[in-house]
Amino acid sequence: MYQKVIILLICLTSVIFSEETLSDKVIVGVVQYSFSQNPEENQRKAIYFIQEAAKKNAKIILLPELYNSHYFCQEENPKYFDLAEPLQGKTYQTFSKLAKKLNVTILIPFFEKRAPGIYHNSIMIIKNTGELVGSYRKMHIPDDPLYYEKFYFTCGDLGYKVFPIDNLKISTFICWDQWFPEVARIACLQGSECLFYPSAIGWHPKEKELYGACQKDSWITIQRSHAIANGVYVVCSNRVGLEKIVPCSDGIEFWGSSFICDPYGQILAQASIDKEEVIIAEIDLKLLETARRNWPFFRDRRPETYIPITKLFIDEVYEH
Q1: CA pair distance 34, 194, nearest whole angstrom
Q2: Which of 15-19, 148-152, 197-201 is the least confident region?
Q3: pLDDT at residue 10, rounded to an integer
Q4: What pLDDT is stored for residue 1 in this prediction?
Q5: Dihedral of the CA atoms 244, 242, 140, 186 (nearest 10)?
Q6: CA 120 → CA 3, 97, 239, distances in Å?
Q7: Residues catalogued as catalytic
Q8: Mean pLDDT over all residues of the chain?
C-alpha cells in the first residue's frame, strides 16, 4: 500500500516538474519565402510553410512583411490599394481556422484597409484558439528609392503593445520600426520578453557589390543590439528573391537571412540569403531572467535624465 502511494507521489511530482519545465520554454518559428504577383499563390505558400513550421513543433510562427503580395511600394500606383483588406477580412478568416487546426499562434503582416483613404501596414496576432488577440500598425513609415511607403500607409496609432501568448509576453513591430531603439525599449519596459520584426528588406542590385555586406550586417546588428540592451529574444523574418515591378528599375533583391537571437544577442537560428525555408529556435524564459540579472540595464536606468529624448531634435544644449 505504502509503496503504491510513494510511486503515485513520484509520478505526480514528475508530471508537475515536467509541466513547469515546459512552461519556461516556447519554440518559435520563422517563415521565409519568395513572392509572386499572385496574392492567392502567396497565401498558399504561406499556409504550406506554416504547416512545415508546426511539424517542427513551432508554437508561435512569424511571416514576412506584407505576407501575400509582392513588395508593391517600389512605385506609387493607386491600383495597389486594391490589395488591402479589413482587419477581420479574408486573411483572418483563413488563418484563424489554420491556427486552431494546427494549435499554433500565427503573426500575419498584411495590408490593412481601415477606412476609405486610410490604409496601414499592419500585423495581426491570431492565437491557437483561432482568436484575434490584437494587431499592430507600423509606426515608422519610410520613403526611399523603391520604398515609397508614405504613398500607401498611414502612420500607426495603436502604440507599442505587449500581447500575452500562453506563458510568453510578446511585442510585434514591422521592418523600419526595427531601426529605432526607443520602440524596443518601450515594449520591454511594459514587460515584453520577445520582439518580432517582420521585414521586407534587400539590396538595390547596383549597390550590392559596394555596400551589400555592410547593409545586411547593419540590419542584423541593430536588432541584436535590441536583444542585448533589453535582455529579450528577437525574432526577425524577411523575404527572398528579386522583385522587379517597375520596368525601368533593377528592382530589389531581398536578402533573406531571417534569424532568431537570444538576450545576449547570440544568433540561435538563421536562414540563408536566397532560399525559401523555415527556421525554429527555443525561447527559454530562464535565460531571459539570467541575462537581466547579470546585465541589469533596467536597474541602472536614469529615466529622469532622459527628458530630451522626447524632442525631435535638440537645437541647443539642454540644461536640466
Answers
A1: 25
A2: 15-19
A3: 39
A4: 53
A5: 170
A6: 64, 24, 20
A7: 65, 138, 175
A8: 93
Query: For residues 13 and 17, what is the distance between their CA atoms, to the nearest angstrom?
Result: 6
Q: Which amino acid is at 100?
A: K
Q: Using H for helix, E for strand and C for coil, what is the string for the chain?
A: CHHHHHHHHHHHHHHHHHHHHHHCEEEEEEEECCCCCCHHHHHHHHHHHHHHHHHCCCCEEECCCCCCCCCHHHCCCHHHHHHCECCCCHHHHHHHHHHHHHCCEEEEEEEEEEECCEEEEEEEEECCCCCEEEEEECCCCCEECCEEHHHCCCCCCCCCCCEEECCEEEEECCHHHHHCHHHHHHHHHCCCCEEEEECCCEECHHHHHHHHHHHHHHHHHHHHHHHHHHCCEEEEECCEEEECCCCCCCCEEEECCCEEECCCCCEEEECCCCCCEEEEEEEEHHHHHHHHHHCCCCCCCCHHHCHHHHCCCCCCCCCC
Contact by Cβ (8 Å): 125, 96 = no
Beta carbons of 106 and 129 less than 8 angstroms apart? no
**CA-CA-CA-CA torsion sign (185, 188, 194, 197):** negative
17: pLDDT strictly greater than 50: no
The pTM of this model reads 0.92
pLDDT bracket for residue 5 (50, 70, 90): very low
pLDDT value for 28: 98
Question: Mind listing the domains of the chain with CATH numbers?
Answer: 24-310 (3.60.110.10)
